[in-house]
C-alpha cells in the first residue's frame, strides 16, 4: 500500500458530512444558582473556528445537574452561540422537574444539536441554566463528568 499525502495535492475538499475537526472542553467549576428567574452561564463553554461558512457544528454536551429545595423543584437549560440561543429557543425552564418530594434530585442531561453557524470566524457555545422553583440548581463541574464536544462537519 502507498500513502497519499493530501497536503501535497494543494486544496482538498472533503465530501459533505466529513468530520473536519474536534475540540473538547477543559476543566471548569461547579455552578450553584440560589435565585430564581435568571439564566446563568454554567461555565460549560467552548469555541471552534469553522474552516468554511458552509460548515455545520455538531455539539454534544453531557451535564450532570441537580435541583434542591421543597416541592416542586424545577430548572432548565439552554445553549447559546455567541450570545444567541440555538437550543431551547423558546426558553423552556423545566428540563428537570420534581413534584411531591423534598431534598435534592440529580440527573445527567445529554444534549446533541447540529448547528449551522454560517461563519468562518470563531464561534463560542455556552450552556446556561435556570432555577424556576426550589432553592438551588447545581450544574456540576468537569471533574464530575460535565463536558462539551464540538465537531466541525463539512457542509
Jot down its keywords.
155 residues; mainly beta; six-stranded antiparallel sheet; five-stranded antiparallel sheet; 11 strands; 0% helix; elongated
How would you sum up this structure, described in words?
With 155 residues, the protein is mainly beta. The protein is built from no helices and eleven strands. The strands form two sheets. Strands 1, 2, 4, 8, 10 and 11 form a six-stranded antiparallel beta sheet that branches. It starts with 18 loop residues before the first strand and ends with a strand.
Compose a concise summary of this entry.
With 155 residues, the chain is mostly beta strands. It contains no helices and eleven strands. 0% of the residues lie in helices and 54% in strands.
Gross morphology is elongated
Q: Encode the helix/strand succession as letters.
A: EEEEEEEEEEE
Total number of beta strands: 11
- Unreliable spans are none
Distance between the termini: 30 Å
Rg, rounded, reads 19 Å
- Secondary-structure-based class equals mainly beta
Strand content: over 45%
Give the helix level as a range of percent: under 10%
- Give the rounded overall mean pLDDT: 93
Tell me the layout of helices and strands.
Layout: E1 19-24, E2 31-33, E3 39-48, E4 56-69, E5 73-81, E6 84-87, E7 96-98, E8 103-115, E9 123-133, E10 136-139, E11 147-153
Antiparallel strand pairs: 1-11, 2-10, 3-9, 4-8, 4-10, 4-11, 5-6, 5-7, 5-9
